[in-house]
Please model this.
Amino acid sequence: MKVVSIVGARPQFIKAAAVSRVLRKNYTEVLVHTGQHYDANMSAVFFEELGIPEPEMNLGVGSGPHGEQTGAMLTGIEKVLQAERPHWVLVYGDTNSTLAGALAAAKLHIPVAHVEAGLRSFNRAMPEEVNRVVTDHLSALLFCPSQTAVDNLGAEGVTKGVYLVGDVMAEALAFASERARGRSNALRRLGLTEGGYLLATVHRAENTDDASRLHGILQAFDALDEPVVFPAHPRTRIAIEASGYSLAPHVKVIEPLGYLEMVMLEQSARMILTDSGGIQKEAYWLGVPCVTLRDETEWVETVQAGWNVLPGADTKRIVLAVRSFTRPAAHPPLYGDDQAPGRIVGLLETEA
Model:
């Protein structure tokens, strides 16, 4: 069995790594990086951390308007698929790379398998929502991380090829957490103590491209009375500099980190403030409270369990959420165990 896996952003590599470690034991995988997000940290060290080889192909598409970027990806992916003729095209999540991979495969009559199928924010203003909906409706196999995702697909009339497999990030996090304990010196290097700081990340366009939302978030960071460690995404750093906003000294803005160091900071933080979907889940699995800097989330179960709150970008609500949060007594298991990659590979083989 041959599988072409399409990825384009660092979080997708982390998810793909979990599946690749299982897939490559017995089958052939061609890992294609569209180049959607160029990350200077995505070096040989990054892939060594994940326990996978570097991608076989990098299309080098780069950033650009959605239509231009997706079109360039379609052209590049189509050529790869025509040359490789895989049994499956495997796509992850909700980026333009996901959409381009699904479209290219569907037009060549190669079946698509979608990891993280069925997630919905119900906000069509988000490019990610459009990508995931279209990809789900093009897919032959839909690997859902939760029953909510299965139910979302059922409400749209998608029931064939739908499987509740759990979340591949559980395995990725377990793998990284074990490695991080022995390899990362992030706390010592940054002068941090366990439980003595907040960890913040902001990268979504809805926050970085809207000056009022970005300022609301930054003002909340300034108003907090404990250290805030803020690995700044390049898009976010540019937006902050363009706005002329100057953060308070207790907000420590640093460069993006490798995955192992990021996991180390996550598991040692008192609380995490983020607009990242992946970090919301990681916070939950690590037992760290989360404040999600959005008005909605695809990972509603974390909110229902009381470990995640949604203050949006409102300064007062963010500050209140951080200061008044009470850790729930219960921590129910969410999104399955760490066996999702094995289930996915098994289903790819069965359905090939």
Remarks:
- Residues 23 and 345 are 6 Å apart (CA to CA).
